[in-house]
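G., before I forget:
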Amino acid sequence: MIVEFYRPGESVLHRLDPRPKMLFLGVVLAAFFIPSAPWVLLVLTAAIAAAIVVTLGPSQLVPPLKTLWPILLLITVLTPPFHRDGVPLVRLFQVTLLTSDGLNTTLVLLLRFLGITLGFFAVVRTVALDDMVLSLRWFRLPYAACLVITITLRTIPSLASTWHNVVDAHRLRSGIPGSRRRPRIVETYLPVLTSVLIESVKGIPVLAMALESRGFGRRNARTAFAELKKGRPFVRDMLVLAAAAAALLWPIFLT
Amino acid sequence: MNEGKPAVSPAFRIASIAILAALTTVLTRVVQIPLPARGYINLGDVAIVFTAITLGPFSAALAGGLGTALADLLSGPYAFWAPISLVVHGLQGLLIGLIALVRPRNLVFQVLGGIVGMAIMAAGYLLAGVFIEGAGPALTEVPGNLIQGAAGVVLGILVSAAVIRAYPPVRQWKW
């Protein structure tokens, strides 16, 4: 199981501090929901796509577009019937298929969906999950919450491995889950799920003891080995992304 | 170790949320069951229903929300659903747990909680989908979400009973 979508690299996007990047993403997301003309959203989406192409390479745009095209097609086909005001643009046998309002809303939804997806994609592709947790800590998320996220991320691979081991064990004893053309979900998955859940919950007291033995709950000063940028590089990244946000968002306030 | 005592300690709470959130992520991302008609369902809802019935509403709210949000975040193109999943599945787990807590070990209340949670989950995604994708595409996702939710309720209740029977100490871990 791939536990992280992050790909290491040396691009400009990779080198930017994760905190301003996350703030920038929040601003861009808000911008996509402010009522504005389709051309404004087109500029925003094109800027995000261009940033991905220039810094990460054109091939990086393929996976999200490959995954998203069915949804983009659904938006294109299903949005116009819900918006029938405005000037009729396409008619077939006295039936209006597309109006100016329908076209406008379809374009807004397509660009919003694509822009949000690419924005998130650019961030999760270039920020390691550990740095994301450190950034959340910097944003004043409580220590306990950050600890939960960190432990969860560390536990996912071992639980995924437990699942596969249990499936293999049951495969040796009885049929192969999912091998039938029409699998019986309850009959096939209940024994596997039960074994995996018992194995998982048995780990809870062990992990709790480990946490207590390592000092969780005491009021000692904590040490941290991982740190984000400090001082001038952080301020520089903040200023760069604030300027980028201002440059991208001014059309919204003009329209 | 006294297995009843840790239920109140902060370390035990942290451990239970982290492990159950990881379990929810694994069941959401790794396990994909093909449907007879078309498409796939995942078992993330099974983990949420199981946690809500077995370990209580707050474990379910935190583990369910975090687990599904991380699953979205790790998926890449669907990362933007992470904040929505955090809220929707968190609320789903909380409601199932609270309703099941009215009459513990009563199947009717467990099923009722599961149905309410399933409805909240489908409605939450529908509402978010209307804002992001528009009403048409959002409506097409409702049947899939309901099928996945129903499978989660059935398997979650069954597996909860099986785990409690096989590993009784888990009864004392509800909070």
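The first strand of chain A starts at residue 88 and ends at 92. Chain A has two domains: 12-127+232-254, 142-213.

More on Monday.
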